[in-house]
Amino acid sequence: MDWRKKTQGISLNVNYFLKLLSIQIGWQVALVGIVNLPLLAQESKIPTNTVSDKLDIPEKVIKESPTLQRWLIEVPDVLEDIRHDPSFDTRFRLGFTTFPSNNNAGGINIGIEDIFIGRTGLTLSADYQSAFNGDRNAFGADLDYFLFPLGSYINFAPLVGYRYVQSNDFNTDGLHIGLRLMLALSRTGAGDISLSQSFISPGSETEVGITSLSVGYAVTSKLRLSTDLEWQNSIENNDNRAGINLELLF
Asked: Is 163 within the bounds of a domain?
């Protein structure tokens, strides 16, 4: 009988302990909830209407930064931007040129290369070349359409435009078409190579073929030195030209 009483006593003690434990846990849960109420209230007061509020960015800073404005609206595709950000710059060219096939006559070479039209692959170029003695003259303007993204290091562009050339007593003008290869050695415009083959009035009796090679290298962030070579073939003459230029980058 004693063992039964002892067993009942142990059961009563266990039940009593469990009741006390459950009451204590209940109070702890209640106290934790009460303590966390102010924190929950503070979290509910955090402004969520704009990203700038969450980041605590002064409104003045946002207004003065177009890049930040764009990022706050939508995070851009940086890789896609790199692909379409031109790997070469617009260049204004001024230099001295010589015409070996015309008794090494000296002259002037002026032009502007690759004016970008929007964010497309279309660029506009124009130039003027003239010998001081009047034996050689040429000028024209072309549209180039680059087939690959402008951020590519290698690019091809068909070109179309108008060109006039004069060599001694021969002259012609008309439609100018061809193909251009662009090798951008640096994405900052520090160096590039341009090679083109084109024709004036193709298929006519006065057709002229022109092969051009230009190499440029930057000496500062906005100034480059370049050299250009040109071979001009027609039914009248086979002419050539070489020049050295200063180029201002835009």
From this structure: yes
From first CA to last CA, the distance across the chain in angstroms is 107
pLDDT value of residue 40: 45
DSSP string, 139-204: EEEEEEE-SS-TT-SEEEEEEEEEEEEEETTEEEEEEEEEEEEEEES-TTSSEEEEEEEEEESTTS
| pTM recorded for the entire structure | 0.69
Rg (CA), the chain: 38
Do 19 and 58 fall into the same domain? yes
Q: The domain that contains 112 carries what CATH number?
A: 2.40.160.40
Distance CA 188, CA 147 (A): 20
DSSP annotation of 90 = -
Q: Among all chains, which residue has been given the structure tokens 């092969």? A: 211
Residue-wise pLDDT for 185-240, tens only, equals 887 778 999 999 999 999 999 999 999 999 999 999 899 999 999 999 998 889 99
Q: Residue 8's domain spans which residues? A: 2-81
Domain boundary among 53, 81, 109: 81
Which carries the bigger pLDDT value, residue 61 or residue 173?
Answer: 173
